Amino acid sequence: xxxxxxxxxxxxETFFGRNMxxxxxxxxxxxxxxxxxxxxxxxxxxxLRNHFGFIGIGQExxxxxGFFDGVxxxxxxxxxxxxxxxxxxxxxxxxxMKMIHMGKNPINSWDFLHYILGRCSDIEGLxxxxxxxxxxxxxxxxxxxxxxLHWMAVDRSGKSIIIEQTKRGLEMxxxxxxxxxxxxxxxxxxxxxxxxxxxxxxxxxxxxxGNTRLSPFGQAAGTMxxxxxxTSPERFVRTAxxxxxxxLPRDATGMVMSCFHVMESVSIPRGxxxxxxxxxxxxxxxxxxxxxxxxxxxxxxDNIQIGTASYWENCSYTKDVVCxxxxxRPVIFEKLYPC
Length: 339
Fold this sequence. Notes:
Layout: E1 2-8, E2 14-22, E3 29-33, E4 38-41, E5 46-49, E6 54-61, E7 64-72, E8 77-82, E9 90-91, E10 105-108, H1 112-117, H2 123-131, E11 133-137, E12 149-154, E13 160-166, E14 169-174, E15 179-180, H3 186-192, E16 207-209, E17 212-214, H4 232-245, H5 252-264, E18 282-290, E19 295-300, E20 303-310, E21 322-326
Parallel strand pairs: 9-11, 10-11
Antiparallel strand pairs: 1-2, 1-15, 2-18, 3-6, 3-21, 4-5, 6-7, 7-8, 8-12, 12-13, 13-14, 16-17, 18-19, 19-20
């Protein structure tokens, strides 16, 4: 369970971010991956070289570093979200390795985010990479299953696409609404929005049923049709309405605040959603990136104070991956004193 959005300020800066809702134990950390970094593609043991450096949130386990989201030095940003019951990948075997000779690069699905962050400068470049990629499903070290994933990407211009591999094959969709959630697929989510065309920011006027006058209970009556649960379709609708109707600030600081306020409407408190494994599915963290500056803004479930980290302030330290630390930080309460 996750939600992702993109927003553009009045000055044209594009922000991209997501809620990471998960029921497995994770310890997300911020990493800097330098340009020209070489890493192993576990499918065919070829060493891959990144073209661009990036900053991303991920986790290292059993010697494997996987990423949840990130932004590279060209302002290209992307995130991976769960896509249960819809994602379908080919299993690893010698036969599908022949795709290399057909001009396609086989990539493990949980390596795909790292792959595109290191190679794509914009959405047009991503489309070319996707057309030459063949996704293979292999168990990841966190869930120890073939995690069903789909991806949302955005560049500095504000263009965004969704990438999904289903029984229909590997597909790309222009993300005109700038929102992504989980299952069903993106096309279904967009059709479902038509069920909520009567949602409005305007107040509903009083009406008469016969001789009985009915008046709304205060303000916000126009938003009553909005769904209030935490399923993927409900979160998609709620987020799409809010992000397309908020007042967009002019400066970057105001945009950061607006981004977090939008995601608060779909943040899941611990204990509200239980899985069949008797584990909590809740919002582990919320993070946004400014694609113009390659800066991260983030807060974790147990610390809602916003932290920040910049690619450009940390990219020159080493030629290897650098860990900037955990998102889960000690809480510091700011005290106020008499003037």
